[in-house]
Amino acid sequence: MISPHACVDPAARIGAGCQIAAGAVIGPEVLLGDNVRVGPGALLTGPCCIGNDSTVGAGCILDAGADTTGGELVIETDVQLLAGATIATRVTVARGARIMAGTVVLRSVPPHAIVAGNPAQITGYTLSADRPEAASPATTREREIGAYPTTVRGVTLHRFPRILDLRGNLTVGEFDRSVPFEPKRYFMVFGVPNAEVRGEHAHRTCKQFLICVHGSCSVVADDGVNREEFLLDDAATGLYLPALTWGVQYKYSRDAVLLVFASEYYDSAEYIRDYAEFLALRQ
Amino acid sequence: MISPHACVDPAARIGAGCQIAAGAVIGPEVLLGDNVRVGPGALLTGPCCIGNDSTVGAGCILDAGADTTGGELVIETDVQLLAGATIATRVTVARGARIMAGTVVLRSVPPHAIVAGNPAQITGYTLSADRPEAASPATTREREIGAYPTTVRGVTLHRFPRILDLRGNLTVGEFDRSVPFEPKRYFMVFGVPNAEVRGEHAHRTCKQFLICVHGSCSVVADDGVNREEFLLDDAATGLYLPALTWGVQYKYSRDAVLLVFASEYYDSAEYIRDYAEFLALRQ
Amino acid sequence: MISPHACVDPAARIGAGCQIAAGAVIGPEVLLGDNVRVGPGALLTGPCCIGNDSTVGAGCILDAGADTTGGELVIETDVQLLAGATIATRVTVARGARIMAGTVVLRSVPPHAIVAGNPAQITGYTLSADRPEAASPATTREREIGAYPTTVRGVTLHRFPRILDLRGNLTVGEFDRSVPFEPKRYFMVFGVPNAEVRGEHAHRTCKQFLICVHGSCSVVADDGVNREEFLLDDAATGLYLPALTWGVQYKYSRDAVLLVFASEYYDSAEYIRDYAEFLALRQ
Amino acid sequence: MISPHACVDPAARIGAGCQIAAGAVIGPEVLLGDNVRVGPGALLTGPCCIGNDSTVGAGCILDAGADTTGGELVIETDVQLLAGATIATRVTVARGARIMAGTVVLRSVPPHAIVAGNPAQITGYTLSADRPEAASPATTREREIGAYPTTVRGVTLHRFPRILDLRGNLTVGEFDRSVPFEPKRYFMVFGVPNAEVRGEHAHRTCKQFLICVHGSCSVVADDGVNREEFLLDDAATGLYLPALTWGVQYKYSRDAVLLVFASEYYDSAEYIRDYAEFLALRQ
Amino acid sequence: MISPHACVDPAARIGAGCQIAAGAVIGPEVLLGDNVRVGPGALLTGPCCIGNDSTVGAGCILDAGADTTGGELVIETDVQLLAGATIATRVTVARGARIMAGTVVLRSVPPHAIVAGNPAQITGYTLSADRPEAASPATTREREIGAYPTTVRGVTLHRFPRILDLRGNLTVGEFDRSVPFEPKRYFMVFGVPNAEVRGEHAHRTCKQFLICVHGSCSVVADDGVNREEFLLDDAATGLYLPALTWGVQYKYSRDAVLLVFASEYYDSAEYIRDYAEFLALRQ
Amino acid sequence: MISPHACVDPAARIGAGCQIAAGAVIGPEVLLGDNVRVGPGALLTGPCCIGNDSTVGAGCILDAGADTTGGELVIETDVQLLAGATIATRVTVARGARIMAGTVVLRSVPPHAIVAGNPAQITGYTLSADRPEAASPATTREREIGAYPTTVRGVTLHRFPRILDLRGNLTVGEFDRSVPFEPKRYFMVFGVPNAEVRGEHAHRTCKQFLICVHGSCSVVADDGVNREEFLLDDAATGLYLPALTWGVQYKYSRDAVLLVFASEYYDSAEYIRDYAEFLALRQ
């Protein structure tokens, strides 16, 4: 359904079930998947490629013609661009992302991320719609010591003893007891600029256990069906990610130190860095 | 006067004396009051409702269709949206507000406020056009101790003694003498996030006396005809607001403590929180 | 009882019941009251005057001879100088004070003060020995809103509502209701250097109500028999001092603002600045 | 080449070789030079004047009609406005500037500046395309003491001794030896708000020598053909600007102090503040 | 050898080889071990007990008579009190400690500690006299990744990879590879007041591995013969303490987080908290 | 005049007119100049050497015997040690210095310095007794632009223009006009630890001009007869030191940058580093 007041170049390729509103401009090097909706006055100058079921809001601008850095401007499936968003660089907006109204996107956007502002910053992730009564770090902090399930399959939150003392505080964990495995390796992440995402991948066989020992950071855990975000801001709280869990770490405070125990020595072949591959393995 | 190059849905309701420029798109659920001017390329996808004498600049976007939070997108009377402003949420922009060019509005805008940026922040208020020679805190600071009139009816600025001493400083006020009334009550506001507006209302019978005892904040006082903004940043300066004065407090510094003396005990029925009601009472 | 190994100038005047230990040196212009105890090796070069029941610890030095500013070195009654203290200026150490070990005293020490360090700083006051279960700001903070008695006669601690809000916090008090009187006057003290004592007096008829609206300070209240120290560090806590209460304010944080409501207009004749006079009036 | 889907007012003046894309709106008081390209959906409401060889990207808005402050909205030659930029004030964008996607411009933009954000801030300068192996402060810091040429004609970077010492550090320069001239005058710039540009001009006869003695700032030097940017952040590095060099100073850190030695006493007639005049003199 | 100008109470018990200088005062409840040297003018009012080979410098005051808290004032063997130190509390100064000139000691002093100031703070430990060319964190930081011996038997310093990245930094360790054992347990110490000593003990069988993951702290490791102090201030440096190593942790920065891996689950019987017992086990 | 109750070693050498008070102990390796006064209970264990007209207050301890670093403990002429000072290291206390009560001296003390605390810090200099109405930086700041004489011969304070501007501030000086000479050289001092003295010397022929361009520092200027201390804390204030002026720079703030213009190229032979030599040249 293309409005008679839209201006669509004959060379553009338009999928089945697309809707193009009045005042929209579609250039010659534009490829729309199926069921894409383009709002009034949206300018898809191109070149660009938009996946199935995505939405381009009123007055959005997709115009990578002046960007000579190479690559393509790709909007994957199920993406929402709200009114007035501008993308003028050859970046990829991954599946399920949401670009808020008036956002100016300068870098690629990861799966399910929500971005806003000029320039765009990740402000959150689109989480599972239905979240039954599950543990979160905040509620866990007041619970007893132990492990609590979450909405994400296999992911557990762990509460450790925290011994307060005028001479200094102490927290302690025991491997194979309060921590679910014996570690082969630890690593620490620190000195992360505030808004930066660090780490966005799953592991084939490696289990991980995360403790934010100073400052705070947020971890999004995703089993392919459910996603949940955990704010880690306490040395006595740990988050267990079993193998085949997609994990995102972000919103580091400037002084954050994230300690990670891993059940395996490092093996680069063991990382899954492509979300589509992760979804395939999960099913 | 509707440009032949504009695209107006027949279901839209357009008031008398409206002007709609070339390239503008007006959706079916849009209601324009009288004398509304819509600039070239403005996208009023709707649903929205725009009051008399308001202006929507070139390329502005009013598109609340994707916002499912309920309510309505309302632009009241005498509002100015400058070029390129975007509103994609169901908020109210109150009478006399001015939305600067390129602003992305995410929250409701109070009467006479000026907002700018992405996301929008209040940067000021549209003040009285003609400001005769009146007292301001800065000029008052160098005057003698006493009370000074302002451009707003009945509002006075008060200069108290400030005794500087190597052992610490002192300021003092006397009720029924240097403060115009005997207080029944004090309250203090503190811990206000920087850009936040706190308080926007008038009182039917209660008089108030405001002193910023630490840090700084700004107070806009409005008698329905004249408005003036006062920066309070000194423990020896007070601002008297008689009954039936509309007051706005904002631009709190992080460390601000605002001390308010009130001439009456608290009575919620005594507050006027609607600006239209205030204007009616004032006349 | 003078040790034969002490060296006491015949011109010195020694009261009844004094004890002077081995190695001590007592100069000609020294006047000891009754029951003064002078420890081993103490050097009372003088000129100085030590009141009844005071103690000069081992190795202390009282040597005002090099101070040409005039006045006298006076140690009042019931003073304790612990081992190794040095006083080389013509100051007064007032009754009940305690000079901690190793202190070097450069300024006069007020009644019941405890001083330590080099140079001496007031670190506290010698409080009532027996403190029955009474309110303190810390315990009050967790109690319900209302007024609580203290160990000091007539002095009450007041807990006000504290309304926390994402948009900023609020606290409120009502005169003649939650505050025990109607104020005639307020004053504020601010910009006080950290260790400085500010205010040390009683009022004949004026009642006071103290709130530390920013930062923190300590108030010692004294009814002539009992003394108690209150740390005020919260805008929702007030301290009521009835007439004829000796009050000391000190330990101001750099950013402290102390708000005081007074039941009377200012009258200098109404102040009692001499502790002995205060004690007489109290009895 | 004007698209049949563009809407161009007959009163507009359009230069030779201009291209105007679909959906663009050109108002009556618009003047386009030669070879100007206007992208799809761009709204040139006017009044405005655009110089030869400039580009206005998709969805850009040039709408100064609501700005009553006087002056003109002028886009000079060789300017690039990327997609979605908004200019609603009567400012000048000088030759060679680049306005990044989504930028909201509120103030005039100097020659060759790159601006981005809402509101626009200068983020850099379009520098010389070919930069042969030349000195920069960073590489100079590790070189030996001495003077090094740069890509800009006559401009040299100078490395001074830096004597580190536990008791404090020292750096030293000698006039007519390590500094190329004898100064008649020094001046210091300090307290500069962070993003602010300070100084943008050339001198007819005066030579300058710049040292950032605390904090850091950036200097762009331009001989009319080549431009290079120098970060000065070290008291032992100096930058020599001969006469007839266009210099820009910006990106001051909050604590920056820039010390400048000048070879002549102050003479306002000696300043060239117009870039076009500078280019003429250079040739 | 007692000076005839000293004043020694006949009730005092004086060991063989003691030297008591002119002007000293020795009270009745004083017990001096062998070879104690007491300097001129020192006042050992007592009660106190001083171990063999200790030295009390000129003008020191040991006067626990006014301390009514019970216990004894004990100076153990090989202690040095330099001139002018004052101890007026019933504390223990443990073997090998050194009390610097002018110090006022208020708390017990641990073995080999060096204390200074008023009040006394631990400023260091008397380390091994001969320190052959060994690793320290500072020199290790510039060495290659690996493990380095120290002067203390079995204690090793470990340098881990530190991967610097604009997106944040990373360090990593592998158990049974770069860390000498597989941990059964971790614990973290944090929120330690600055000058506070935390932990002063050895383990019978447990090995420990210490990493200061944020801020800094110092660790003294002692094999009974050699002692060395290690400043840990870098997340990529670890310190290995084998079983039967005496360890002291102190000088925590306010923001320090010390992560410890332990080779055994917790067992209180496994701790040695008495230094004398440790020395016995070591031999 | 030696008190019969003092204990003076026959090997000590005592100058003419010395006074030694009761209880004092004078060791064998002590050399007192003429007119030295030693207070009661002072312990001059030695070895030490005290210059003419110096005073050692009651209870002071001079005991360099435990310092095995070599050198001598020398107290020069006209030095005052107030009561309770302790010196246990082989340092030199230079002429005219004053050691305040209770100080523990660990490092050499420069001429006319006043030191206090434990450990001793330089707190000032003994300045000229009579200070006629002269310029100081504080009073100068409010005067007009120009040069003002001081109490020190030839030394002038200079007030420069300070142009305040929202875009940043500016100050300017002209050589041979507002600065009294043409510089051959500049140097800058920065990164000085707070309490450290840096520079203490005079120049034979070189004139200097000092501006503290960031932070603050203090300069003591001395013509051999008068001394005055200047706090430089403002980039628009300069201090001129003619040749043959003894200058001391200290009390640097951590962020201080001191800019010095010198009238001559560097010549080490031109420095006078010995105060006695300076005094001789001055006369």
Automatic annotation (TrEMBL), chains A, B, C, D, E, F:
Against PANTHER family, the record matches this protein to: ACETYLTRANSFERASE (PTHR43300)
What CDD domains does UniProt report for this protein, alphabetically?
A: cupin_QdtA-like (cd20292)
Species of origin reads Novilysobacter avium
Entry protein name: WxcM-like domain-containing protein
The protein's superkingdom reads: Bacteria
Classification via InterPro entries:
Hexapep, Hexapep_transf_CS, QdtA_cupin_dom, RmlC-like_jellyroll, RmlC_Cupin_sf, Trans_hexapeptide_repeat, Trimer_LpxA-like_sf
Please state every residue range assigned to the domain named Sugar 3,4-ketoisomerase QdtA cupin: 154-282
Q: Which UniProt keywords apply?
A: Acyltransferase, Repeat, Transferase
Q: Coiled coil where?
A: none
Which family does the record assign?
A: Belongs to the transferase hexapeptide repeat family.
Cleaved signal peptide residues: none
